[in-house]
Design brief:
The strands form 2 sheets. A 5-stranded antiparallel sheet has the order 1-2-5-4-3, with helices on one face. A 3-stranded mixed sheet has the order 6-7-8. Helix 1 packs antiparallel against helix 2. Strand 1 and strand 2 form a beta hairpin. By secondary structure, it is of the alpha+beta class. Helix content is 33%, strand content 24%.
């Protein structure tokens, strides 16, 4: 098994490509060791000292490390954990663990606008962000403000504010006149 790694715009996060499906569809975010119970793979990666976050996409694993830890020290152990997991045949998610589409539900007022926002996120934003090892999902819409949740490499990325304001906000404003601003939300 050969696992490729790619850097991301977030220097604290690396993208690992095992060359096979991780989730296939959906995403799974594990922002802490406590959240990893739903995934044998995430639990195994969190066993590496210095790992602070794990995120699964369709065919990649994104790992975030603590600032005081160097990639040269943890990357081999993370590669080993991922390889051991896939060679073991164990599932990526426990039976009760569910991969999510990511978007928060929204019904009632503005539901047409919200569907347009989700469509633009799914077709224009999320594929590009997945290339960088992360995900951005819809959280809410209130009085012209779109609230988005950043996961994986996007969470805590130095360029995430620029991506939100110059990229996503401009895109949504262009196609949906009701959108006046885009803001990130914490998990």
């Amino acid at each position: 098994m050969f696992i490729q790694t790619e850097s991301t715009p977030n220097p604290a996060t690396l993208k690992f490509l095992p060359g096979q499906d991780v989730l296939g569809t959906g995403t799974a975010d594990f922002p802490s060791k406590d959240a990893a119970d739903a995934s044998p793979l995430a639990t195994r990666i969190f066993a590496v000292n210095g790992v602070t976050g794990v995120f699964f996409g369709a065919d990649f694993v994104t790992v975030t490390k603590a600032d005081e830890v160097e990639w040269d020290h943890v990357k081999p152990a993370i590669l080993g954990a991922i390889m051991e997991h896939f060679q073991s045949g164990a599932p990526v998610m426990a039976a009760d663990g569910i991969a999510a589409s990511g978007h928060a539900e929204h019904t009632g007022e503005n539901s047409e606008i919200v569907e347009q926002i989700k469509e633009l996120l799914d077709t224009r934003v999320r594929p590009a962000v997945a290339q960088d090892g992360g995900d951005i999902t819809f959280h809410g819409f209130d009085r012209g403000i779109v609230y988005l949740h950043m996961q994986g490499a996007c969470a805590g990325c130095p360029s995430s504010t620029l991506t939100l304001k110059m990229g996503i906000e401009n895109l949504l404003k262009h196609y949906i006149p009701e959108v006046v601003e885009v803001r990130p939300v914490a998990a």
